[in-house]
Specification:
Radius of gyration: 17 Å
Oligomer: single chain
Bound molecules: FE2/S2 (inorganic) cluster
Number of helices: 0
Order of helices and strands: EEEE
Helix content: under 10%
Largest sheet: 2 strands, antiparallel
Strand order of the largest sheet: 1-4
Distance between the termini: 36 Å
Length: about 60
């Protein structure tokens, strides 16, 4: 799906820019391409959220 994960055959090891390694031994691994995942570089389905949480506003437009 557009903006969704890239599915690749596992197991995988992903080397991050800081040199750390993230591994998964699943048969199919979903890699996050939206950058919203809390478990980046692995997809946690955060890409499914359509809207962002916004601060509540009063009737006069002031933030509460
Ligand atoms: S692609 Fe699924 S959380 Fe980013």
């Amino acid at each position: 799906m557009k903006g969704g994960p890239v599915l690749i055959d596992g197991p995988v090891e992903v080397e991050m820019p800081d040199g750390s390694v993230v591994s998964s031994d699943r048969f199919v691994v979903a890699l996050c391409v939206c950058r919203r995942s809390l478990t980046y570089p692995l997809c946690d389905t955060s890409h499914r959220r359509q809207c962002r949480v916004v601060a509540a506003t009063s009737n006069d437009g002031e933030r509460e």
